[in-house]
Specification:
The structure is a single chain. The chain is 25% helix and 40% strand. It is of the alpha+beta class. It has one domain. Strands 3, 4, 5, 6, 7, 8, 9, 10, 11 and 12 form a ten-stranded antiparallel β-sheet that branches. The chain has a two-stranded antiparallel ribbon with strand order 1-2. Helix 2 packs antiparallel against helix 4. The N terminus is likely disordered.
Length: 204
């Protein structure tokens, strides 16, 4: 397949490579310089990661538990947001301007299935700490712009890892359920959005 294909490979399950026609899932490994280019593209499109989260939530009519900016080899930028809605897990692709597009049902995203993601979403509601607030907390603490955010449960408490670009550095901030970004370290690259596709229906 041509490197300029509209589909981007993504690690699935036990390192198996999968392609999804029309849906370019976020592939990590992007350097700080590449992440900085993403921020410039976001600024040019007059959007932010928080705005993308709100738009993706409206698109899937659910709760966003992770979001990541992605850039293909041809320089085309997009965003992928993991959404849980009505007990189902899916990934929503947003274009460079933050508008909705293709969706793909998933068994799990970043190691969280629908049940785990639902638990995370309920914690966001209980703590009044949506992913957008966690992103904004990391941006304030790092004085940078966010390009990825992954919510999770740590010891039954809501937490998130938020990647921001501050100057020439890519930073990873750990944000807790109160919105405090108390741990920050420099990151060498953005993570992958690891996904596991839904198995085919029996008899299908």
């Amino acid at each position: 397949m041509s490197p300029r294909s509209k589909s981007i490979s993504v690690l699935v399950g036990f390192g198996v490579i999968a392609l999804f026609g029309g849906l370019a899932l976020a592939k990590g490994g992007k350097s700080p310089a590449e992440a900085a280019t993403m921020v410039k593209t976001m600024e040019g499109a007059k959007t932010t990661l928080s705005r993308v989260v709100d738009a993706a939530a409206a698109e899937c009519k659910g709760k966003i538990v992770s979001v990541m900016a992605a850039m293909a080899d041809d320089g085309k930028m997009s965003y992928q947001a993991a959404c849980v809605a009505e007990g189902k897990m899916m990934v929503v692709e947003m274009d460079a301007s933050g508008k909705g597009g293709a969706t793909k049902k998933m068994k799990s995203v970043n190691g969280m299935d629908a049940a785990a993601s639902e638990k995370c979403a309920k914690a966001m509601e209980a703590d009044k700490m949506p992913l957008t607030k966690m992103i904004e907390a990391a941006e304030t603490a790092s004085k940078g712009k966010a390009v990825a955010a992954l919510a999770m449960m740590k010891k039954d408490k809501l937490a998130a890892e938020v990647y921001t670009v501050a100057g020439e550095k890519l930073m990873k901030a750990d944000v807790d359920n109160t919105g405090k970004a108390d741990k920050m370290e420099e990151a060498k690259a953005l993570p992958d959005m690891k996904t596991e596709v839904m198995p085919p229906a029996k008899g299908g």
